[in-house]
């Protein structure tokens, strides 16, 4: 699967941390806007002001929480890549479990185990869905696609796609 051809590890951490902050701030902003609107006194001005206040108060905090999760996840993922010497879904699954455990460490060992299980399961589901989508997409375009379309395409384009398809199936042992 070529989704792992990403930024090199030191920059991946910064990239994932920033992306997680953005996702948390935007998603949290939308959620807080609705919550602030609903919980404000009657009147359009009061509701809009309450919505804006909720966004300003909580969206940066949610973005920061997401950034901590994303940064810690990426640091563990990069450490796993360095230790194991390969990039595969097991790195992400393990990183999700360890991130969940570390972030829940202040709540005790029972919370750590529960959060580790949830983090690992969540990342396993995400990785599994990614694998299924990649396999489904690769069956849509067989190797002979360029010749079947009977269009003039430089041969290196067909070869590049063929190499991509073979590399995506060999990573997972099929």
From TrEMBL:
Pfam family, one: Tim17
Membrane topology: Multi-pass membrane protein
Top-rank lineage group of the source organism: Eukaryota
GO terms (BP aspect): protein import into mitochondrial matrix
A single Gene Ontology CC term: TIM23 mitochondrial import inner membrane translocase complex
Cellular localization per UniProt: Mitochondrion inner membrane
One Gene Ontology molecular-function label: protein transmembrane transporter activity
PANTHER family registered for this protein in UniProt: MITOCHONDRIAL IMPORT INNER MEMBRANE TRANSLOCASE SUBUNIT TIM-17, MITOCHONDRIAL IMPORT INNER MEMBRANE TRANSLOCASE SUBUNIT TIM17-A
Stated name of the protein: Uncharacterized protein
């Amino acid at each position: 699967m070529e989704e792992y051809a990403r930024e090199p590890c030191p920059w991946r951490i910064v990239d994932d941390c920033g992306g997680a902050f953005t996702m948390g701030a935007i998603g949290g902003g939308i959620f807080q806007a609705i919550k602030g609107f609903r919980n404000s006194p009657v009147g359009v001005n009061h509701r809009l002001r309450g919505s804006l206040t909720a966004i300003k108060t909580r969206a940066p905090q949610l973005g920061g929480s997401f950034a901590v999760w994303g940064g810690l996840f990426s640091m563990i993922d990069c450490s796993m890549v360095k230790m194991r010497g390969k990039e595969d879904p097991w790195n992400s699954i393990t990183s999700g479990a360890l991130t969940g455990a570390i972030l829940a460490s202040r709540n005790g060992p029972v919370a750590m185990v529960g959060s580790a299980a949830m983090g690992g399961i969540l990342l396993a589901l995400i990785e599994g869905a990614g694998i299924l989508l990649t396999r489904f997409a690769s069956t849509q375009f067989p190797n002979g696609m360029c010749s079947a379309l009977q269009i003039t395409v430089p041969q290196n384009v067909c070869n590049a796609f063929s190499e991509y398809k073979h590399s995506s199936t060999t990573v997972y042992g099929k």
